[in-house]
Amino acid sequence: MSTLHPATDPAVYTPHAARFSQEGQPTTAQGWISRAQDVAAILAADATQRDAANASPVAEVSLLKSSGLLRVLGRASWGGGAQPWSVAYRAIREVAKGDGSIGMLLGYSLLWSQTASVVGTPAQAAYWGEKITRENLFIGGAVNPRDADLEVTEEEGGVVFSGSKHFNTGGVVSDLTVLEGVIAGTEKHVFAFVETRQEGIVFAHNWNNIGLRLTESGGVRINAVRAPWTDALGYDPHTKAPIPGILEVPYATLLLPTIQLVFANFYLGITQGALDAARAYTTRSTRPWPFGGDVKTAATDEFYILERYGAFFASVRAVETLADRAGAELSTLYAEHSEARDVSAERRGEVAEWVASAKVAATDVGLRVTSDVFEVTGAKATSRSAGLDRFWRDVRTHSLHDPVAYKRRELGRYFLLGELPVPTWYT
Q1: For strand 150-155 and strand 201-203, is the pairing parallel, antiparallel, or unpaired?
Q2: Whole-model pTM?
Q3: Which tens digit of pLDDT belongs to each residue from 337-363?
Q4: N or C: which end of the chain has fewer CB within 10 A?
Q5: Where does the source fall among the domains of life (predicted)?
Q6: CB 165 within 8 Å of CB 147
């Protein structure tokens, strides 16, 4: 990493890496969730300081690697945790409680790690799944659909990607990058994994936004990056054409609701982190209001503080329950259809609307709770040292990824008119 782009030092987490190695990889769902909670506690200790420093999260990604969390979805025979998405979502949520940026990075990497299993051939899914799991790789993705697709040209034995993206989460600290583009003169989309560290991938190092500051979500230029036809996911390397039954079926669109539920879960985790931090501040530092006519000796005896915390708690519990239900629905869909890839449009749409419901609820509750906790902590809680502002900044930043109003409309058409959502880059 250039000195022009400062990065965090992985050595700070060496003792934790040694402990994780000694404890070994978790073997149960609860074990994985507990490991994620452990990582969250480590990150929470100095999250406010790291947020302010805005350094490239090299150390934080090393912590994810040493914890094993990048392997949670991988097959056991590859050294993975063999857990369903429902457990991975819980892990993302737990990490986000401690640091929203790192919860987001974990979620994106897990999503991209499954790209070949959704849009690739069985052989490609096995190859990339094993490689990513065994080598404990962190994955970035230069896919942002709001920008023009990368242009893909053909050359002897492979395809060449060129273009640029304004956003590329985690790319700077990734081992592999997922590229997506359209073959010039056609409407054929191509996904491929490529090595991140190569001359043709040039990062802008321009991520300096108000929230999620350690996600390295800045721009990237892709300059004639080559991948062999064997790595073009879902394509026959001999005919150079999509393989029937791979890319044109509803199953191939499942990356979209899967990542939308990644979003909902790290929003929820950030919100839970805010509520935990506010509780700690209130019980430790908030003073009772002396001019209300019913003076209490402690802020925790004040009716309005108790009432507001009760409302926060109920709202967050409701989102948690909804997110868990959506995660169970998506996990069941994958379990039932991953072999035959025969999910129906109706089933796909039904699950997508469970995800949309969770996304809407997590956004609305997240923005409200992370903002309103200041009303129950007090004026001193706005100090930079308290760090309560980072939770709102994190939810506010990513909740603009795709307008939640369109998710509400989508749900309205599904409920009122019985219309299935049309698969798009955001549905």
Answers
A1: unpaired
A2: 0.97
A3: 999 999 999 999 999 999 999 999 999
A4: N
A5: Eukaryota
A6: yes
Cα(316)–Cα(308) distance, integer angstroms: 12
β pairing state of 189-195 and 158-165? unpaired
Q: Which two tokens stand for residue 155?
A: 């050359």
* pLDDT tens sequence across 76-130: 999 999 999 999 999 999 999 999 999 999 999 999 999 999 999 999 999 999 9
Within the chain, all domains assigned CATH 1.20.140.10 are found at: 250-417
Would you state the pLDDT for residue 293?
86
Amino acid at position 194, single letter: V
Task: For domain 250-417, give the CATH number.
Answer: 1.20.140.10
CATH of 10-138, one of 1.10.540.10, 3.40.1280.10, 1.10.10.10, 1.10.357.160: 1.10.540.10
Whole-number Å distance between alpha carbons of 192 and 280:
46
**Contact at 8 Å (CB) between 317 and 222?**
no
Q: Does domain 140-242 have CATH number 2.40.110.10?
A: yes
Q: Which amino acid is at 72?
A: V
φ, ψ for residue 372 (rounded to 5)? -80, -10
**CA trace torsion 352, 357, 363, 368 (10° rounding):** 180
